Amino acid sequence: MSGDFLQLSLQIPVTIKPVTTQFFDQVRTFSDFGETSRQIVTEAQTAAGEPVCVPTFVNEFWTAKQRAAHSLHEISYRACFKPQLPRFFIERLTSPGDRVYDPFMGRGTTLLEAALLGRVPVGCDVNPLSAVLVEPRFSPPTLTEIEARLKEIDFADSDEWPEELLVFYHPDTLKEIVALKKYLLRRQTDGTLDTIDKWIRMTAINRLTGHSPGFFSVYTLPPNQAVSVKSQIKINTDRNQTPIAKNIAKLILKKSKQLLADCTPENFDTLKSVHRNALLLTQTCDRTLQIPANSISLAVTSPPFLDVVDYAGDNWLRCWFAGIDAKAIKITVPKKLDAWQAAMTDVFRELHRILKPGGYVAFEVGEVRGGRVKLEQAVVPCGIEAGLTPELILINDQVFTKTANCWGVDNNAKGTNTNRIVLLRKDA
Ligand SMILES: C[S@@+](CC[C@H](N)C(=O)[O-])C[C@H]1O[C@@H](n2cnc3c(N)ncnc32)[C@H](O)[C@@H]1O
Q1: Domain total for the chain?
Q2: Exposed/middle/buried for residue 261 (C-beta within 10 Å: 0-12, 13-18, 19+)
Q3: How many Cα atoms sit within 13 Å of 143 on the Cβ side?
Q4: Which of 7, 230, 259, 389 has the smallest C-beta neighbourhood within 10 Å, fewest atoms?
């Protein structure tokens, strides 16, 4: 690990005022999992080229050994982070009733964790699929309600016939999928889509394709990454497989049961109390006028890492089912670091506007381009340019687990999973 960072003597002049907030001390003295934090320094530069040294702490701050995350999180999404990451910051930097925001919310890990902890969730994502996956979990229906609604749906009433999808589905299953799609879009158009329908839509989207019998499809890649029709033809040939018929209502109910497994009456009450003030936006996050100035206590987020993940490509089948035109979505995927920094500076300017004085942004980034680009260094000048102070960088260094490998970068090869989080503060 230490080779990854430029370690400097603390004698080198720093342009950041040393801060000794409570959080800083908590991170410095953290030893919940046996080891104490290792302190190093990350060298960065302002946009004008002045050197900036940011205190950096390495430890296992959250771990696979911790109590598993709440079952409601189990909606897969490309490049999602573990719920333990936002929890670490939410618990230490906010109080119940505070607004917690994620400008790149994805499946809504930050928002759901915030809501379960009694904080008001605020989120934004340019892809409409995101709100479709996030919103239903703020007001989960009961299993009885879901079962009753599934019985009411006519799974034979279909008129679309996307033949190319037969590489994923048995003809009977495809018929049921298009019938459910038709039902949901009709309810959406006539304004009768309710919380139970939205839950069913979210769960069906999660079951569309995957690598185990619990999915509607024949064996394919994990559910957050639908392959192209051409690639699926190859998978079917290589594995000598043909899709078998699945009962999609049964699979939706089974997954619903898993999602609801950890829900206590207290969870339902907490979610209900924060849901009415929640705000979900579908747009780019560099201009979010619906969010009042000085209203957010904490943002925990991870942006697109250059062009590392193809969000549009990976979600094409999910978007088809939800009636979303995936090609029309303007996802930020700059190839070049300069363009990425310009886009992130705009995001930080907007975050500066909406953060409360003294509020924080925990900005999670990774190594890209085989470790040649360390985005935590690149983030520092963007934050400073927008008026934020980089307080520290936290590196969670934990033993690799399958679910932790979100990025497809060199973490996998190292057998470790590192999250690098730049913590920035708006002056009080
Ligand atoms: C790394 S993922 C976030 C995953 C999230 N932390 C989670 O746990 O699910 C980045 C997200 O940013 C979204 N995105 C890309 N460009 C955006 C933009 N300009 N404004 C808002 N969201 C954007 C993508 O659609 C994607 O969902």
Answers
A1: 1
A2: exposed
A3: 13
A4: 230
Q: What is the dihedral of CA 287, 17, 20, 112, to 10 degrees?
A: 10
The values of phi and psi at residue 14, to 5°, are -115, 150
pLDDT in tens, 327-380: 888 887 788 899 999 999 999 999 999 999 999 999 999 877 777 778 899 999
| Tokens describing residue 17 | 């005022």
The per-type count for the chain, helices as H runs and strands as E runs, is 15, 11
| Element of type H or E holding 409 | none
> Which residues of the chain register pLDDT less than 50?
1-15, 18, 400-416
The torsion of the CA quartet 41, 42, 47, 49, rounded to 10 degrees, works out to 70
What residue numbers bound the domain in which 194 lies?
143-259
Question: Do residues 52 and 384 touch, judged by C-beta distance below 8 A?
Answer: yes
Mutation pick for ligand 1 pocket among 105, 283, 335 (CB with most ligand atoms within 8 Å): 105
Alpha carbon of 80 to ligand 1 centroid (Å): 9
| 293, two tokens | 């100035």
In this structure, what token pair is assigned to residue 283?
Answer: 């747009």
Ligand 1 interacting residues, C-beta cut-off 6 A = 77, 79-81, 103-104, 106-107, 109, 124-127, 130, 284-285, 302, 304, 311, 331-332
- With respect to residue 195, please indicate whether it lies within any of the assigned structural domains: yes
Span from the CA of 4 to the centroid of ligand 1 (angstroms): 26
CA distances 143 to 136, 254, 257, 264, Å, are 14, 10, 7, 13
CA dihedral 374, 375, 376, 380 (to 10 degrees): 120
- CA atoms in the 13 A half-sphere facing the CB of 237: 6
Residue 90 contacts residue 113 (beta carbons within 8 Å) = yes
Q: Report pTM.
A: 0.91
Contacts of 191 (CB under 8 A, 6+ apart): none
Q: Is residue 22 included in any domain, yes or no?
A: no
Q: Ligand 1 centre and the CA of 303: distance in Å?
A: 6
What pLDDT does residue 245 have?
A: 97
Q: Is residue 218 part of a domain?
A: yes
Q: Are 83 and 70 in contact (CB under 8 A)?
A: yes
How much of the chain is helix, strand and coil, in % rounded to 5? Answer: 40, 20, 40
Place of tokens 């932790």: 404
Are 428 and 358 in contact, with CB atoms under 8 Å apart? yes
Output the CA angle 410-415-416, nearest 5 degrees.
80
Evaluate whether residue 5 is within a structural domain: no
